[in-house]
Structure to design on (578 residues):
């Protein structure tokens, strides 16, 4: 301490105060930009599957995002491979695709071409098949499957049901 | 305490307290500009005036604009456009100036590259200028969100998604930037804040740095001549105004500057009154809808070239190429290994490089606007590779350049 001048000490003291204050205000600033609790709590969406028509895309809204629900025809299911079928949600023997309808490239909403049975993204030309698997770049991965829970003929989006957990373990959510 | 005497005039009173005569000399009448320049040297003043137009029109728009997802669209498209007296004028001035300012920025940048005005002590002028370009880009993007139309919403979605950094899947970062899972109220209000306060503050500070960076190395001239400003200034002040290579910034050089500005303003207000449509995308006259993507999402013309560098690649490669395009111009003073401060056409390979860069950026801009299909995808891909290639070879072709 002998060698420390008064001015040097005051400089260091200010540095310490400024560092503590600076870090503390960064924490506050970061949290101010976090999604609000009311936004995070924006709950759960219930979807009735009994009214869905085959090969006709239904778009629901969940946490501000579009959710694609596609009931598959028997022919569609018949020509599917294993990877495609593994992503299907099966309710009473009927196969459904349930996925977040945002292109995994940059988040545009792909359109469903029911003749070709594929999803096409207008923004950068990406394509997904009727199970949500990416079949043409630039999207790097399949459409994301949101948390769901099957209850009879309805599906609750936002809840993690047993079928969802099984898909999660198999690593096929996206 | 300084010695104050009874003032003989208002000017003298101010002079004793603020040294206004000294300030005037330093800032204007004894700030020396080379004679050997052309109209391209007036672009800085044109930019300053355009920034002024954006500020004034923005102040008037701010009096009626409402940063709320329910009312933003109508506050712009109904209240300002139809109810407020001359509201349409402020909006059209603001929109046209926002577009034209980038045209002038690109001319200003390319002038700097062509005449070698980023070398030998002028590096900080170039770097502060490129930081201004980044700040203006942020200003343009945040402003584009405010009318809350379809293009506002989907451009906001696409650009904020870039921050997930591709396969790194940093969705938390994206949600933090938005304050929501998708662009919503929190997103609109924070971009409103950025647009009207934080980014303009940064721009004003950077303009200060940009001007300050000019003072020591001075403005470059058409031949890259290394002028001794002290000697030439002495010659001028001694009365040899014809023999001196420099003139006063004000009023001498300013008179020419402002003449170019007046031609620019005639062109500018022609656009504002008769041809403003290019600055107002028709898709953005539909209110934002999170469940309907427009058929084609494309940015305003001035971002098309970098957007086209992002587009033809797979996600991660595209992001890296895009990031490369955003930062590479800043490094120009260090990638150009030649000591020559000369016009590009006297620098051999560099001259070819300059014109290839200009053509490549025009091709990228054209392809960015077209849908990503067939031959357009291929041309866009080649042009994107070409852009990266040009910057990779720059240090090599300038290293072998002969001293001119």
């Amino acid at each position: 301490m002998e060698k420390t001048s008064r001015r040097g000490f005051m400089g260091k003291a200010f540095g310490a105060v400024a560092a503590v204050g600076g870090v503390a205000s960064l924490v506050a600033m970061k949290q101010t930009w976090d999604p609000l609790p009311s936004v995070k709590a924006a709950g759960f969406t219930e979807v009735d599957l009994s009214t869905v028509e085959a090969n006709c895309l239904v778009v629901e809204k969940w946490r501000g995002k579009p959710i694609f629900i596609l009931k598959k025809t028997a022919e569609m299911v018949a020509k599917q491979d294993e990877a495609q079928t593994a992503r299907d949600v099966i309710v009473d023997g009927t196969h459904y695709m349930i996925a977040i309808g945002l292109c995994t490239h940059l988040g545009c909403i792909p359109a469903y071409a029911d003749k070709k049975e594929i999803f096409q993204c207008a923004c950068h030309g990406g394509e997904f098949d009727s199970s949500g698997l990416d079949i043409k770049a630039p999207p790097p991965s399949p459409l994301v499957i949101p948390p769901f829970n099957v209850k009879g003929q309805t599906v609750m989006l936002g809840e993690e049901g047993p079928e969802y957990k099984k898909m999660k373990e198999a690593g096929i959510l996206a | 305490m300084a010695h104050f005497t009874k003032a003989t005039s208002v000017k003298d009173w101010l002079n004793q307290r603020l040294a206004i005569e000294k300030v005037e000399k330093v800032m204007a009448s004894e700030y020396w500009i080379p004679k050997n320049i052309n109209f391209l040297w007036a672009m800085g003043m044109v930019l300053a005036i355009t920034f002024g137009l954006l500020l004034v029109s923005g102040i008037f728009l701010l009096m009626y604009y409402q940063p709320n997802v329910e009312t933003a669209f109508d506050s712009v498209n109904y209240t300002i456009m139809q109810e407020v007296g001359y509201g349409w004028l402020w909006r059209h001035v603001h929109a046209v100036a926002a577009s034209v300012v980038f045209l002038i920025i690109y001319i200003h940048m390319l002038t700097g590259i062509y005449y070698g005005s980023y070398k030998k002590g002028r590096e900080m002028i170039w770097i502060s200028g490129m930081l201004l370009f980044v700040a203006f880009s942020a200003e343009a993007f945040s402003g584009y969100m405010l009318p809350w139309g379809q293009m506002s919403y989907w451009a906001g979605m696409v650009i904020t998604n870039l921050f997930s950094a591709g396969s790194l899947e940093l969705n938390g970062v994206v949600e933090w930037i938005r304050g929501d899972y998708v662009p919503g109220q929190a997103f609109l209000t924070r971009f409103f804040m950025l647009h009207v306060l934080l980014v303009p503050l940064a721009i004003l500070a950077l303009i200060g740095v940009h001007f300050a960076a000019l003072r020591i190395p001075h403005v470059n001239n058409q031949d890259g001549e290394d002028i001794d400003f002290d000697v030439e200034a002495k010659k001028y002040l001694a009365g040899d105004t014809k023999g001196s290579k420099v003139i006063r910034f004000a009023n001498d050089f300013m008179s020419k500057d402002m003449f170019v500005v007046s031609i620019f303003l005639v062109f500018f207000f022609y656009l504002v009154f008769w041809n403003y449509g290019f600055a107002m995308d028709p898709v953005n006259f539909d209110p934002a809808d999170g469940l309907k993507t427009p058929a084609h999402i494309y940015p305003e013309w001035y971002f098309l070239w970098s957007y086209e560098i992002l587009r033809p690649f797979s996600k991660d490669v595209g992001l890296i190429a895009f990031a490369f395009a955003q930062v590479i111009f800043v490094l120009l003073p260090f990638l150009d290994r030649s000591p020559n401060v000369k016009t590009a056409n006297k620098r051999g390979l560099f001259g070819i490089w300059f014109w290839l860069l200009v053509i490549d950026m025009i091709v990228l801009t054209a392809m960015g606007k077209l849908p990503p299909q067939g031959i357009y995808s291929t041309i866009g891909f080649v042009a994107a590779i070409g852009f990266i290639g040009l910057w990779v070879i720059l240090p090599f072709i300038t290293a072998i350049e002969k001293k001119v």
